[in-house]
Amino acid sequence: MLGMVKNSLLSTVEAWPYRLLSKGEKDQVSYEERACEGGMFAAVELVGKPFDEASKEGAVKLLKYVGGSNDKGVGMGMTAPVSITAFPAEDGSFQQKVKVSLRIPSQFQANPPCPTDESIKIEEREGMTIYSTQFGGYAKEADYVSYAAKLKAALGSDAAYRKDFYLCNGYDPPMKPYGRRNEVWFVKE
Q1: SS3 56
Q2: Is 62 helix (H, G, I), strand (E, B) or coil?
Q3: Is the peptide bond before 113 cis (omega within 30 degrees of 0)?
Q4: What parts of the chain have a pLDDT lower than 70?
Q5: How many angstroms separate the Cα of 152 from the Cα of each of 4, 24, 37, 87, 137?
Q6: Which residues on adjacent β-strands are paired with residue 131?
Q7: Which residue, among 133, 125, 137, has the nearest Cα to 166 in the 3D structure?
Q8: Is there a contact between 3 and 63 (Cβ–Cβ < 8 Å)?
Q9: What is d(CA 75, CA 175) in angstroms, rounded to the nearest whole number?
Q10: Is residue 151 a contact partner of residue 179, using CB atoms and an 8 Å limit?
């Protein structure tokens, strides 16, 4: 636990590498199109819990992993964002299923430590192109749903992206009260 706290408070945060492809704005909604690098990710799936509870539980598990709860006992440093894959229901709310993931820091990409928590899986993922919009505050399910609707309206019917899931991203530790960054990402088809 101490490793997790030390890691999230004192380490520098490595950003998920991406290349900006374009920027747009419509109806006061700014968005970007980005090409995000692939790589190795730590991920945990949670089912049967509300989004806010499941995402918090998953994030804590991953913070413990990068904080030293792994077979090498090493604190790896932090990456951002913590990314939560959400699965919208017909009415736009989220199903009780999430996948919380974190890109493994660069120096551990080639040989990631094994998690001691068996619910955490190490996955290799391809790069992806995304549409993103940003907002502040302490994000909850209602905020992500709201900003996803705004991004959908701003992109219109011309943009092709996955409709069966989208990514809810948080960039800041919980103890940061101001200047928080959250994003909704739609994965381009």
Answers
A1: helix
A2: helix
A3: no
A4: 1-11
A5: 36, 13, 23, 15, 21
A6: 33, 186
A7: 133
A8: no
A9: 19
A10: no
d(CA 40, CA 34): 19
Q: Which helix (H) or strand (E) holds 146?
A: helix 141-155
The single residue listed with the structure tokens 């900006």 is 20
Of residues 158, 180, 137, the one with CA closest to residue 24: 158
- Tokens for 68, please give them: 């030293």
131 SS3 class: strand
Work out the burial of residue 41: count CB atoms within 10 Å of its CB; fewer than 13 is exposed, 13-18 middle, 19 or more buried. buried
Residue 43 bridge partners (DSSP): 101, 121
**Using CA atoms, how far apart are residues 7 and 13, in angstroms rounded to an integer?**
9
All residues at 6 or more sequence positions from 188 whose CB lies less than 8 Å from its CB, including other chains:
33, 128, 129, 130, 131, 159, 160, 161
User: Strand order in 166-170's β-sheet?
Assistant: 18-26, 29-36, 128-135, 182-187, 166-170, 82-88, 94-103, 39-47, 120-125
